[in-house]
Specification:
six-stranded antiparallel β-sheet; EcKL; Aminoglycoside 3'-phosphotransferase, Chain: A, domain 2; CHK_kinase-like; Phosphorylase Kinase, domain 1
């Protein structure tokens, strides 16, 4: 965790000099040293309130400062150098091209530096702290209710629609910036490890169904495909006319809601470190399988919540947006993305025992797989099996690029 002295002496002066807090602004004081910080998987975070003077007036800013983690092994494992690059690129270069109403979906960006491995200690992203404005994480750690999901999908559609509009107005400029995004997870060096780790986790929800005789032909075929998870993901990432700038890690952990009488009235997204250009289903399917309960998925997703997303996309992007039918076909082809990621992440969310990252870093691949595929016990295995049943019922496991069920 960077010290408050380092922040005061090096980072904050650069941020103020950049004009982020006003032209010719001067630091008056750091009002609140609520800088105990919080260690994330891939970064360290400080919460600070500052007061600056611009001319004769003073203004306070409540900010979040995200730094690289100091552990070099962890930086390499999570590719945090590329994550910081992506987040700074999106905020500094890509988001200014977006309409103002879309910018309101994100916290205000003040300052960012990415040195791409040259000096990771200097990498930083400074954003608006939304907590003083009344935003907070949901009380629920995993599964959200209908109102939260509908609001999140509506705002996600607005975020995605901006890409469709940009492609029609300044396609080359947008494409050039998109091409600067770095791959943070599915890179060729990790192919064999990912095939084993993600493949074994994904099989966890399938094996009990096969043993009970449910959908043997479909599920055995799916398990065979899981020997090459890397190939599955590479196919899903192929760009087409529906492609948009995706959040890349669209889940409850990366959104904060504002409430009136305990009812969610607004939501903002954060953490764009794994942003990628690709199918909107990348974001939709991950959110679906990670943050919607079995009951909500089966009663409300296909006919209601999916339509909420599609209707909003069409309202904002007009004829540039795909039809509901075409979007559903895209979902059938690519929804397994969300399941593959949820099959290892959901057990972490549902397990009563918090994961110890330092211990994981020192485990062998076999040890990590063994712990991961049993995390949370039979209760979690059943949750994953229900996800697989939904994939089957929605036509996602019999659908390839040439043949889709209507």
């Amino acid at each position: 965790m960077p010290s408050i002295e380092f922040f005061k002496s090096k980072i904050l002066p650069q941020a103020i000099a950049s004009g982020s807090f006003g032209k010719n602004a001067e630091l008056v004081q750091i009002l609140e040293d609520s800088t105990k910080g919080q260690d994330q998987f891939a970064s360290s975070v400080l919460f600070v309130e500052i007061e600056v003077r611009v001319g004769a007036s003073k203004q306070k800013f409540s900010i979040i400062c995200k730094f690289q983690c100091e552990n070099a092994q962890m930086r390499e494992r999570f590719r945090t150098d590329f994550q910081f690059w992506n987040e700074v690129l999106v905020y500094q270069e890509i988001m200014p091209m977006f309409p103002t109403n879309v910018l309101n979906i994100l916290p205000e960006f003040y300052f960012g530096v990415s040195t791409l491995m040259e000096a990771p200690e200097n990498d930083v992203v400074i954003l608006e702290n939304l907590i003083p404005s009344g935003y907070r994480l949901t009380k629920e750690r995993a599964f959200l209710d209908y109102d939260h999901c509908a609001l999140a999908l509506r705002k996600l559609a607005e975020f995605h629609a901006a890409s469709l509009l940009l492609k029609s107005k300044c396609q080359l400029k947008f494409a050039n910036k998109i091409n600067e995004l770095k791959e943070t997870r599915w890179y060729i060096k990790a192919k064999e490890e990912h095939n084993r780790y993600f493949g074994e986790n994904a099989k966890r929800g399938i094996i009990p169904l096969v043993k009970s005789g449910k959908h043997p032909e479909i599920l055995n075929y799916f398990m065979e495909k899981l020997s090459n998870v890397f190939g599955i993901m590479t196919d899903i990432f192929q760009v087409n006319e529906m492609s948009v700038l995706c959040h890349g890690d669209f889940c409850r952990n990366n959104m904060v809601f504002k409430y009136e009488e305990d009812h969610p009235v607004d939501v903002k997204f954060f953490d764009l470190a794994t942003a990628r250009y690709g199918s909107p289903i990348i974001d939709i399917s991950f959110f679906l399988f990670l943050n919607m309960s079995l009951e909500l998925r089966r009663e409300h997703f296909k006919d209601e919540l999916f339509k909420v997303y599609s209707d909003t996309l069409q309202q904002v992007a007009g004829t540039l947006a795909p039809s509901l039918q075409d979007l559903w076909k895209e979902f059938q082809q690519k929804a397994i993305y969300g399941y593959i990621l949820a099959s290892f992440f959901l057990p972490i969310m549902l397990d009563d025992n918090p994961i110890k990252l330092d211990a994981v870093m020192n485990e062998s691949e076999d040890e990590r797989i063994k712990k991961s595929v049993t995390r949370g016990g039979e209760k979690v295995t059943k949750v994953l099996s229900e996800l697989v049943i939904d994939l089957v019922n929605w036509g996602c496991l019999t659908c390839d690029n040439l043949e889709c069920q209507e």
